Amino acid sequence: MERNYRLLWELGELAKRREEAFRHLEHCRLCGQECGVNRLAGEVGICRSDARLLVSSYGPHFGEEPPLVGRGGSGTIFFTRCNLRCVFCQNWDISHQDRGLETTPEELAGMMLALQHRGCHNIKIL
Ligand code: SF4
Fold first, then answer.
1. What is the pLDDT along the chain (126 residues), one digit of tens a residue?
2. Whether residue 83 has its Cβ less than 6 Å from ligand 1
3. CA of 41 to the centre of ligand 1 (A)
4. The whole model's pTM is what?
5. Same domain for 64 and 31
6. Could you list the residue range(s) of the whole structural domain that residue 28 is in?
7. 58 in the same domain as 43
8. Which of 45, 56, 71, 86 has a 20 to 30 Å separation from 32 between CA atoms?
């Protein structure tokens, strides 16, 4: 089965989307907080994230609804930090205590492929 992301890569669409995504970081309004900070220059907004990628953990997740989990699990990658300030956050150590490792885009892609090879039915980032 041909994966959609391969088709997007072959068409050059992935490179265009990457450039556009990075452009958004110059005056970040990627979420409803609309901080307008330049994350490429190291500024941080309410989420306290600059342009670096921090990952707390990844693996098959079985705590979702059965149609999402199937037999192989839902491939879940937990990013560090969060743009919300929920009082009852169940992932406080990840979202607000900055527990995570700096990760390159290549390493992130490797995590996604590893989840795919482990039989996960989907990939999601939290
Ligand atoms: S909270 Fe973070 S992602 Fe949201 S607008 Fe501010 S800097 Fe951007």
1. 677 888 999 999 999 999 999 999 999 999 999 999 999 999 999 999 999 999 999 999 998 899 889 999 999 999 999 999 899 998 899 998 989 999 999 999 999 999 999 999 999 998
2. yes
3. 14
4. 0.85
5. no
6. 1-48
7. no
8. 56
